[in-house]
Design goal:
The protein has twelve helices and two strands. The two termini are 32 Å apart. With 314 residues, it is mainly alpha-helical. Helices cover 77% and strands 1% of the residues. It has one domain. A two-stranded antiparallel ribbon has the order 1-2. Helix 5 runs antiparallel to helix 6, helix 6 packs antiparallel against helix 7 and helix 8 packs across helix 12. It is an enzyme of class 2 (transferase). Keywords: Membrane, Nucleotidyltransferase, Transferase, Transmembrane, Transmembrane helix. Belongs to the CDS family.
Amino acid sequence: MNDWWSNSLHAGIAGLLGLLTAASFVVAGMVRTHSERSYTELRLRVRTWWIILAVFIAAVAFEPIVGVVVFALVSFIAFKEFLTLVPTRRADYRVLLWAYLSIPVQYYWVANAWYGMFIIFIPVYVFLFLPMRMVMIGETNGFLRAAGTLHWGLMTTVFSLSHIAYLLALPDRNESTVLVTGATLAFYLIVLTQLNDVAQYIWGKSLGKRKIVPKVSPGKTVEGFLGGVATTTMLAWAMAPWFTPLSPWEAILAGLIIGVAGFVGDVVVSAVKRDLGVKDSGNTLPGHGGILDRLDSLTFTAPLFFHFVYYLHY
C-alpha cells in the first residue's frame, strides 16, 4: 500500500478523485438546501467532469500506447467538431478525407517515438499536400480561405494535442526521490492547464474590474488573468518535484508559460467562435459545451510545455 502511495501519479489521481467527490457532495448539498434555485448546469458540469476524469485516467494510468490511442480519438473528435463549425466547400469533401487520415499517421509517429517525423509531418508534408490535392480538384473560388481554415484546424486539434501524447513516449527519469515518467509529465501539464482556467475564473469573479479583451471575451479581466497566472505558477512550483525533472526556477517558468499560454488559447478559440457567431463549439460535454471549449487552453500549453521540457531535460 505504501508503494502505491509513493507513486506520485497514483497519489495525484487519488487527489483528483477526492476533489471531485467533495465537489459532488457540495453540489448535492446546495441542491438540497436551496431547492428553489436551479443548479442544472452546475450538476451537468460536475457529472461531465467525472467522465473527463475517467478518460484522463485511462490515458495516463495504463501503458503509453493506451494513452496514444485515447489522445488520437480526442484529436479526431475535436477536428470533427471544428469542421462542423467552419463552412467547408462541397468540392473539398475528398480533401477532408485526406485530412482525417493524417490523424492516425501523426499518432503512429508518436507511438513509435519517431520525433523527426512527428515534428514535421503536419506542419510540412500535410501543409503542402492538402493544397495540392485541392488544386487538382480545380475549384478556385474560396481556395485560400478553405486551405487556411483546414490547416489551422489540423494544427490546433491534431498537431498541438499530439504533443500531450508524445510526453507519454519520453523515457523515464529517476530523480532523487521520485520516478518521472511521461505519464507524470502529462498529468502535470493537463492538471495545471485546467486549474489555470478555474483560477482565472475565480479571481475574475472575485476581484475582476478591468476587462482585458472586451471585444473577444467580455468576461475576462486583468485581475482574473494575473491572479490565475500567479496561482498556476505557485502550483507549478509546488508540484514540480513530484511530477517533473524541473528545478524550482524552471518550474516557475513552466508555470508562467502554462498560465499565459492557457489564457491565450482560451481567447483565441473564443475569437474563432465569435467570428462564426456561436457561443459554444458544440454540445459533446453537457454543461461545458463542445470538446474544443474544454481543450482550447491545451492547444497552446501542450506544444509550448513539451518543447520547454524536451529542450531542458531530454
